[in-house]
Structures are given as structure tokens and as C-alpha cells.
Write a structure and sequence with these properties.
Helix content: 40-55%
Distance between the termini: 74 Å
Mean pLDDT: 90
Number of strands: 23
Strand order of the largest sheet: 7-16-15-8-14-9
Shape: elongated
Radius of gyration: 37 Å
Low-confidence stretches: 872-881, 883-887
Length: about 900
């Protein structure tokens, strides 16, 4: 790529060269440096190539040194915060659903007035409500600027004197009229040069049709990769018009084509031969993200998820061993903590839990405590310049303690964050005194609004999102989004300003004619900047066909005919093609169950019945879903509360006659005592808070009162056993510990088994592979005189018994007996159940572990990452506190 002679001459003469945006200025600076290296120069003066608005700020800063009485220029963060305050403090701003968006629109509208020279008096009589709101905001903004002794950057041009040194400027359609007139008056335009007719890679204009937007990006990446492999120092400029929205997709596609090593398991730190312009929010980079997390966690209530993220952050730990300790501590906290607390409470609980678990002292907790003390050393409202040193000290004490492991990009992001903090510290006059929580919100907004891109130089392939003339000559250009509905760009007037005035003063986005003219000029410039210019368009993802823009050169051949179609996800396909051929071996048999292993009681056979792999993974691999603290008591705890409360109730009542004889007052007192007894059993293990305890007490009282009404409808019974000690059931040589909730006896000596459920219930014990073999297992342990087994559904939505019974009217008058799966009596049914349970246990014992789920098994399973069977979107309700686990 040859550097224009005029640019090299101006740079070598020490002239200031002005570009309309920072992206083009960086490209020009890189081109000049590369040309010096090509010419064999070892030392040269740094070219004075500047983005125009930054150059204006530099000039104004120099004038301030000579005349401190001049107004200070607002920084970007100051201007954003000032506009936000203007809009939020106004009556009109309160009517907007998104005041922050209104502030951005007002700022853009003001800049448009300045850039196109639209006088305020021209819109003063506009009756539209949004225009009147803007006029009020603009007046308030100017008044606040005067009070603060500040000026916005777009207002600098009117007060900037003629430059004292020679100024050259890049001829570009990106210049706005007011700036162009100033540049024309005081500077010399540098015209772009056309690509030489004999340029390498020159093929003229081409067109490309893609069947989807994803394949359009993939095709551009493949085209760049093929040309780079051809050698000859190929350089290309690629325009992706919606780059901001599709940045992750673009990076994915270009990594696949140009840096496939980034998808390998082994980390590849080599520089990619491409770069994507524009940057991403500074808050997205790891050092900034963790710094903001610490600051936000130091104020108010912190969720468990937020504290977990903070505790497990790699940058907080000095070694892998310390990180492992933090992971073990986090796992222990999941079963002991409330769903939210302030940070100091979390740190105190974590420290106590670590000691109770016998874990070594965790340095991360001490560092977080130090950081928190730094932040809490000052209270009340203070200027930002007072808060910033405390924030920096806290960040360096905890999340930034491992700076030596940062990558170059992370170092640069952290440095940019420091610059942002410094800018905020200098903005006391604009932002004013703030409480720490409010100051941290300002900082978070600033980090989200600040785009950042690590400096890696300008590589061979440059991906841009700016619809502009790249000015420099390239070997190839690829322009995406050239369908008839997107090129020329649709009319998009500036918000808050009258469209009539926008068109009158030549605002390009407000006029179809101006958009057409701009598109034609840009397209001609693109064709003149490269030996090969590819114009592409794509069908919509919904399969809607797109037509090429009529502006495209109709005679240009289709690149599709000479270029193989790209893959939708080329990186996975490339890795698959490069992978060695593997021998396929299906192993669905685990080692036999060993004597030293333990089961999870009935839960093991339940999982084995639903899917053999699930039984193996959950019981033998200990593959379990992590518990997450929830507000109040979790479903399992609420199930245990019901068990404990009913145990207390029936230890007092003993039988149906005791239930019938108890009076209303005594019954209410019994329910209160039962609820309190249950809470005292469960509450010490986890502390969701006093208000949740009070709510659960009321819930238990009401729920169990209704349940006793359900029990009162039964035939006469006596509670023979309740929540008895666990028993050992042996099937196929394996012991399963089991605890039966309740055994009742009837007047004639017949017996029935009851298991409480607080979730949704159904008759899930039937069939060769029952979803839950719990009741059959209980029956095998207590077969004598057994006539029924039942779930007691203690659920506010449905209070009932779901039973298998050889008698009618046992649980409710008019209730029919069960079909007993076609058996003549319950004893015969128990024999069928015994054979099924023995088979399940034998399969488990011998290591049967194939992925063979029952119809609904996947809906309640979390092992899809291991078995690779897609799960259902909605999981079915699981049993809560059913007592069938290992004890």
C-alpha cells in the first residue's frame, strides 16, 4: 500500500495533519511510520497527525496556560454528566421513559446545530414538544456552562484563533460544513490518490451475494485470509456497517479465518493479522469489571451470586491453592447463607464458615476486608476528588493485587480506567459532592459509556464500522450491507430538531436526496481506493431474499462464482477438518459398585430408573447441581419444615380420635408449637432472616391446619410409626439407607405407608421403570399386613392423598381402590415391585450406565453437559424434602 506523496511531504515538513475522526488519524499515522521503515529510515520525527476535535482541545489547553481566565473545555465524561443532570432536573425530562437516552439525543442535537451552522432562532418558534424541550435543555446547559466557567468542545471552533503553524487536512466527506469552511480558510486540503492501474491484486469491482448476514461476514473473513496467504503484503479495509451490534460475531468469524489458534485448547497469544475498530465499553474488560464489582458490592445489599463472583475472581488470589480454597468455601456457603447481605456480613460469615470447615486462612477475605475498610473510612457526601483516592486504594488492595498476571490489553484497560478516575476527580465543579453510592454510579456510567480498544497497531486487515472514505489506498476493500434497503442509507433525521430545518441546512441523514448523493460519492471513492472492491449483501435470517442496491456496478461479476461458500461457523469446521481421525468406542459400562462406595439411598434407585447414566453420574461421580441460596427458605428446607411440624403434631395427637377431639383453641396452639419446633430444627443451619422466619411460621400454621382437615376425612387410624430411624434395605448386595415418614394402622390391624410431599405429586411408582420407586421400596421394607401406600400431598395448591390401595374409602369417602397394576391383591403387587427393584439395583451394581432416559427424565436433569442429550426447556416440579436421601 503506497502512502500518498502529499501526506508524506506534509508529515516530513512538520505540518499538523488533521483527520475527521480518530480511526482515520490512527491509520494515517501508521501509514507514515510504515513508509519511513520501507525507505530504510531508522529515526524520524513523530508525525503531527491529529483527530480534529482532540487537536482543538490541545489548542485550547495551550491557550489556558497563557490566559487562565478562559473557560475550561469540558471532558467527555463531564459533558455526559452535565447533560444528564440537565435532562433529569427538567419537567420534560421526567416524561421520558429513558432520560439517559434523551440526554444523549440532546447532546447530539446541539452538536448538529454547531456542525451545520443552524441558528437557534430558526427553531425557536417550532411548536413540536420535543423541540421545545430541547431548547429548554440547551438553554439550561449553556447557563450551567457559564456558571462553571466551561465550554463544550463543539463550541471551541468559534473562539479558536487562526492556527500559528501550517495546517493540512484530509479531504473527506466526513467533515461537517462549519468545520470544512474553517479548514478551507486556514489550511490546505490533502487529496487522496487513486490506486495505480497496475496495482497487485487488482481485479476491479466485484459483487457478492450471501444467504445470511452471518455468512456475509464469514465470506469477508475468508476472502481476507486467502489474499493474505497469497503474500505480496496484502492490506485490506473492510466495512461492517452495523459493527457495534455485531462485534462479537465479527471477531468470531475473523478469528476463525485469520487466527484459528485462538479456538484451540492451548492458549495462543500471538497477534492476529486483523483488528476491529471502535472498541467496546471499558467496563467489559476484566480489571475494570472486577473493580466496579468490588465498589458496587461495598454499598447496600449484596446478593449471594454477586459475592460468589467477587470471592472467586482469579485476580483476587495469589496462588492456585488459594483459588481452590475459595471455591471450597463458596460451595460451603451455598448451604449456609441467606440470599443477600451487606459485604461485611458476607465476609464475617465466610470467615466463620472457613474455620468450621477446617479450611486454611483465606487471604482473599483479608484483602476484601482491607478494601472495605478503605472505602468505609469516609462517610457522607464529598467531592469526587476525595472519593477517588479511596477507590484506588481499595481496588489495589484487593482485585488488582495480581497485576503481574495481566495481559497487555488488561494493563491498557486498567490504565485507561485510572485516566477515567483522574478525569472524574477533576470534575468536582460539574459533578459536585456525592455520597459514595452515588459517586460509584457515576463511575459505572462513565465506564460503560467509554469505548476502549487496546493499542496493537494497524494490522494488515482493518475492520471498520464507519461509513467513510478510508482515504488511503489498499489492495482490497470489502463493503458489507449493500442491499437495496440499506444502500443508500435510509433517512434517519436527528432527534429533537425539525426535519424541515435539517434538510434546509444540509444534514445528510435527514434527506433521501443527500443520502443518495453521499452514497454515490462514497462508492466512487471506495472504487478509487483499491485494486479490488467487493460489494456484498445478504438475505435476512428469516429467509427473506434481499436484492442488491441499484447503485452497485451492475456489470461487476459475482465473486460467488469463483469463491467457495463459507461455513456458517467456520472455526468449528476448520478444527474438525484439522482434527486427527479417532476410533469410535462407545463405553456404557462403569466399573462394578465397590464395597467402599456409598449410595444416596432411594435417590440412587430413582435416578437409575429414570436413566442409567444419571444413576451412575449422581451417585458415583457425585455430579450434583450446585445449590443457590434463595430469598427465604428453599424448597427442600420448606419440605423439611413440613416433615418436622407433622412429626410434632402426630406425636401429640397419635390417632384420628385425637384429631377429632381437639378443640379449635388447642388445635391452633398445637399448630403454633409445631411450626416453632420445625423452625428451630431448620433455622440454625441457614439464616434467611427474621422476617422470613415469621412468614414461614404463618405459612406452616395455615397449611397444616388445612392438612389436618384432609386427614380428618380418613377412615379411623392410629399412627404406628412416624419419622422413624433410618433402615437399611439391601438389594442385589447393595445397602440403601431409607427412612419412612409414617406408618399407620387401621382398626383391623391392616397397615399403610405414607410419604409426605410438598411439591407436585403423581402416581409415579408404576411401570417397569418407575419415575420414583420410593413407595415400592418402602413397601418391601414393611410388607406385613400392608394394604396401601400413599403420597400425602401437603401442598397449598392441592391437599390430597395419591395412593395405591387394595381397599376403598381409606383416604376419602367414595375413593375407589387402585388397579394394583392388574394384580389380585397388594401382596402380589409387592412381589412385582420386588423384582423391579432388584433389577434396578443389579443394573446399578454391575455398572450399567448407558444414556437411556425415560420420557420425562431429561426435564428434571442437569447433566446434559455430560450426556449431551438436550434437556427440556421447563423442568418439572421436583419433590421437596421427601426424605429419601442418604443419611
Amino acid at each position: 500500500m503506497r502512502v500518498p506523496v502529499q501526506l508524506m511531504a506534509a508529515a516530513s515538513a512538520g505540518h499538523t495533519v488533521l483527520a475527521p475522526n480518530a480511526e482515520l488519524a490512527a491509520a494515517l499515522l501508521d501509514a507514515v511510520d510504515r513508509e519511513h521503515r520501507r525507505l530504510g529510515h531508522e529515526v524520524w520525527a513523530t508525525p503531527r497527525i491529529r483527530e480534529f476535535s482532540s487537536w482543538l482541545r490541545e489548542l485550547h489547553a495551550a491557550r489556558l496556560l497563557a490566559d487562565p481566565a478562559l473557560p475550561r473545555c469540558l471532558t467527555d465524561v463531564e459533558e455526559r454528566e452535565l447533560w444528564r443532570a440537565v435532562v433529569e432536573d427538567s419537567d420534560a425530562g421526567r416524561e421520558f421513559t429513558d432520560p439517559a437516552a434523551a440526554a444523549r439525543a440532546a447532546r447530539r442535537a446541539r452538536r448538529t446545530l454547531q456542525e451545520y451552522g443552524i441558528p437557534l432562532r430558526a427553531i425557536a418558534d417550532e411548536p413540536a414538544a420535543e423541540t421545545q424541550a430541547f431548547l429548554h435543555w440547551n438553554q439550561d446547559f449553556e447557563q450551567r456552562c457559564r456558571q462553571l466557567g466551561c465550554v463544550s468542545v463543539e463550541s471551541l471552533l468559534g473562539s479558536t484563533p487562526p492556527p500559528s503553524r501550517s495546517v493540512d487536512w484530509i479531504e473527506s466527506s466526513a467533515w461537517r460544513p462549519v468545520v470544512r469552511r474553517w479548514l478551507t480558510r486556514y489550511g490546505q486540503a490533502l487529496a487522496a490518490e487513486k490506486i495505480p492501474a497496475d496495482a497487485a491484486h487488482a481485479t476491479g469491482s466485484l459483487r457478492f451475494k450471501a444467504v445470511s448476514p452471518e455468512l456475509e461476514i464469514a465470506a469477508a473473513a475468508d476472502w481476507a485470509a486467502r489474499n493474505l496467504r497469497g503474500g505480496d503484503g496484502f492490506r485490506a479495509w473492510i466495512l461492517v456497517r452495523d459493527l457495534t451490534r455485531r462485534r462479537a460475531e465479527v471477531v468470531d468469524a475473523f478469528d476463525a479465518a485469520l487466527a484459528p489458534g485462538r479456538f484451540a485448547l492451548r492458549e495462543d497469544r500471538g497477534l492476529a493479522p486483523y483488528a476491529v475498530a471502535g472498541g467496546t465499553p471499558l467496563a467489559d474488560y476484566a480489571p475494570v469489571r472486577i473493580a466496579l464489582l468490588l465498589l458496587s458490592s461495598s454499598v447496600g445489599v449484596v446478593s449471594f451470586q454477586q459475592f460468589s463472583q467477587l470471592l472467586r475472581t482469579p485476580d483476587l488470589h495469589l496462588s492456585i491453592q488459594e483459588a481452590a480454597l475459595a471455591a471450597r468455601l463458596e460451595l460451603a456457603l451455598r448451604s449456609r447463607s441467606a440470599s443477600e447481605a451487606d459485604l461485611m456480613t458476607w465476609l464475617t460469615l465466610a470467615d466463620a464458615t472457613a474455620r468450621s470447615e477446617g479450611l486454611s486462612p483465606l487471604g482473599a477475605l483479608q484483602r476484601l476486608q482491607t478494601a472495605l475498610r478503605q472505602l468505609q473510612s469516609l462517610r457522607g457526601a464529598h467531592p469526587f476528588s476525595t472519593w477517588v483516592p479511596l477507590m484506588v486504594a481499595a481496588i489495589e488492595a484487593a482485585p488488582w493485587v495480581q497485576r503481574s498476571h495481566w495481559s497487555s490489553a488488561e494493563f491498557q484497560a486498567a490504565e485507561r480506567f485510572r485516566e477515567l478516575l483522574s478525569a472524574l476527580a477533576a470534575a468536582d465543579a460539574v459533578i459536585g459532592s456525592q455520597p459514595r453510592e452515588s459517586a460509584q454510579r457515576v463511575l459505572r456510567r462513565a465506564a460503560l459509556d467509554t469505548a476502549f480498544q487496546p493499542q496493537t497497531g494497524v494490522p494488515a486487515i482493518w475492520v471498520s464500522g464507519q461509513i467513510m472514505d478510508p482515504w488511503l489506498n489498499y489492495d482490497g476493500l470489502w463493503i458489507t450491507g449493500c442491499s437495496d434497503d440499506r444502500w443508500p442509507a435510509p433517512v434517519m433525521p436527528i432527534a429533537l430538531l425539525p426535519i424541515r430545518l435539517q434538510r434546509q441546512y444540509g444534514v445528510t441523514a435527514a434527506s433521501a436526496e443527500l443520502q443518495m448523493q453521499a452514497a454515490m460519492e462514497l462508492q466512487a471513492a471506495w472504487q478509487a481506493r483499491a485494486g479490488t472492491s467487493v460489494f456484498s449483501w445478504a438475505d435476512a435470517n428469516e429467509g427473506i431474499a434481499a436484492a442488491p442496491s441499484p447503485l452497485l456496478p451492475q456489470a461487476a461479476p459475482l465473486l460467488n462464482e469463483s469463491m467457495p461458500a463459507p461455513a456458517a461457523h467456520p472455526h468449528w469446521h476448520a478444527l474438525l477438518r484439522a482434527a486427527p481421525r479417532l476410533e469410535k468406542f462407545i463405553d456404557e459400562r462403569a466399573p462394578p459398585f465397590a464395597a467402599a462406595e456409598r449410595t444416596h439411598g432411594v435417590a440412587t434407585l430413582k435416578a437409575q430408573s429414570r436413566c442409567a447414566f444419571r444413576g451412575f453420574a449422581e451417585s458415583r461421580l457425585q455430579a450434583e447441581q450446585l445449590q443457590t441460596p434463595v430469598p427465604g427458605f428453599n424448597p427442600r428446607e420448606r419440605g423439611e419444615l413440613v416433615h418436622y411440624a407433622l412429626e410434632h403434631i402426630w406425636s401429640m395427637l397419635r390417632d384420628s380420635s385425637g384429631l377429632a377431639a381437639i378443640g379449635a383453641a388447642a388445635r391452633s396452639e398445637l399448630l403454633d408449637r409445631a411450626a416453632e419446633h420445625a423452625l428451630q430444627k431448620v433455622y440454625p443451619r441457614r439464616h434467611p432472616g427474621q422476617r422470613w422466619r415469621e412468614r414461614e411460621h404463618t405459612r406452616l400454621h395455615n397449611l397444616l391446619g388445612k392438612w389436618l382437615d384432609t386427614e380428618a376425612q380418613r377412615a379411623a387410624f392410629r399412627v404406628e410409626q412416624i419419622e422413624q430411624e433410618s433402615q437399611v434395605a439391601t438389594f442385589s448386595g447393595i445397602d440403601f439407607r431409607v427412612r419412612i415418614d409414617r406408618v399407620d394402622s387401621l382398626a383391623d390391624g391392616a397397615r399403610l405407608l405414607i410419604d409426605y410431599k410438598t411439591g407436585a405429586v403423581a402416581a409415579d411408582w408404576r411401570g417397569e421403570r418407575p419415575d420414583n420407586p420410593q413407595l415400592p421400596i418402602y413397601a418391601l421394607l414393611q410388607p406385613a399386613n400392608l394394604v396401601a401406600v400413599a403420597y400425602g400431598s401437603v401442598n397449598a395448591a392441592k391437599l390430597e392423598f395419591v395412593a395405591e390401595s387394595e381397599r376403598r374409602d381409606l383416604f376419602k369417602p367414595g375413593k375407589r381402590m387402585s388397579q394394583l397394576e392388574g394384580q389380585p391383591n397388594f401382596a402380589a403387587l409387592i412381589d412385582i415391585w420386588r423384582a423391579r427393584i432388584e433389577k434396578l439395583a443389579a443394573d446399578f451394581a454391575t455398572g450399567r450406565a448407558e444414556v437411556a432416559p425415560t420420557f420425562k427424565a431429561c426435564a428434571s436433569c442437569d447433566l446434559q453437559g455430560l450426556c449431551r442429550v438436550p434437556g427440556a426447556l421447563d423442568a418439572e416440579d421436583e419433590d421437596e424434602g421427601d426424605g429419601d436421601g442418604d443419611e
